[in-house]
Specification:
Layout: E1 6-8, H1 17-23, H2 36-50, E2 56-61, H3 64-73, E3 81-86, H4 89-100, E4 104-109, H5 118-127, E5 133-139, E6 141-142, E7 147-148, H6 151-160, E8 166-170, E9 189-193, E10 204-209, H7 211-216, H8 229-236, H9 247-263, H10 265-286, E11 302-306, H11 313-324, E12 326-330, E13 339-343, H12 350-366, H13 375-387
Parallel strand pairs: 1-12, 3-4, 3-5, 5-8, 8-9
Antiparallel strand pairs: 2-10, 6-7, 9-10, 11-13, 12-13
Helix pairs in contact: 1-9, 2-9, 5-6, 9-10, 10-13, 11-12, 12-13
Amino acid sequence: MAGRNFLFVPGPTNSPDRILRAMHVPQEDHRSSAFPELTLPIFRDLKKVFKTETGTPFVFPGTGTGGWESALVNTLSPGDKVLSFRYGQFSHLWIDMMTRLGLDVTVVDVEWGEGAPPEQIQDLLTKDTAHAYKAVCIVHNETATGVTSDIGAVRKAIDAAKHPALLFVDSVSGLASIDFRMDEWKVDIAVTGSQKGFMLPAGAGIVCVGPRALEAGKTARLPRCYWSYEDMIKANATGYFPYTPSIPMLYGLREALTMLLEEGMENVYARHHRLAEGCRRAVAAWGLSLCSKAPKWHSDTVSAIMVPPGFNGADVIDVAYRRYNFALGAGLNKVAGKLFRIGHLGDLNEITLLAGIAGAEMAMRDVGIKVELGKGVAAAQQYWLETQKPLPPKHVAPPAEAAVAKKPAGVA
């Protein structure tokens, strides 16, 4: 099919050409004396994205799911009590992992479309006077429902309960797109992946581990080998890995970090919020609603759009892919068929997202959903026009030099 396939799923996201070029490298010796010149700046700059001075970042060949497992097995022992909240597919899967690893999980079900409830967290931890809970696990941005939880409020709830539980946060579809403050929120382990805000292919599980979590690892008894933080610390200290890393991924990650820091993290967050709000204006103009139940839950990286009764979101996704060569996100688990998702994170701007909004309008019309063509596009355009920054100054070329240098005297 002619034209470029565009991803409007909430991961993997579109990889900018700068990153693709950076990854196009010959293989090299990952134990050479020059290799730390690549890796040590990556570890340094990851701390800036996590907003931490005290955390230790790790880059595992793997996925965010592997990052989940690393958080659990490096800090907990069989039978340890964990408090977790289920409000989407990914919180559900993390809970399933905890159970399969032999942890005693207290699962609190929250309506899909809402996020972590700070008041309930405070209540449950206040009642735990024996401090049996060793960890509280929260999904920052629930990709399946387009919901962002307030991690700062979660931290205040834990502190108000005067509870020592570790705080583990999955920010796979949040980090590098939505504000994250590891030190300020006293997050003990944060987990993300390469294929979302970092704009890379899937293939790296990226975690940042605070001092309390590292201390907990000294007495933790869950088995670990591949995911061992101790092994990574020893090797990473000098710029190496305990096993063979993905060398192209590391070059891509270095370029991604350069791009993020060039833009400035606050500017990255502001761009994502503005683009997401334009998408939300489009949804409202269509007369449709989001899965997210209230503005305080709205995600700036993905909008989960409910289809009208009698329609199947999977049909919208199928037509979008087969007829228009672009990908929308599917509804998962409880919301399967009830919605489709527009991912708006990573490498995108207004024009990019307009393509996704316009394509979604066409695909919805194709399956019989009565939306007015152009209405969502116009609503997003109007919002972005109203909120755009002043134009950057024009580039003025320096005065042109003489095309030909003066000829020496006497030369014809």
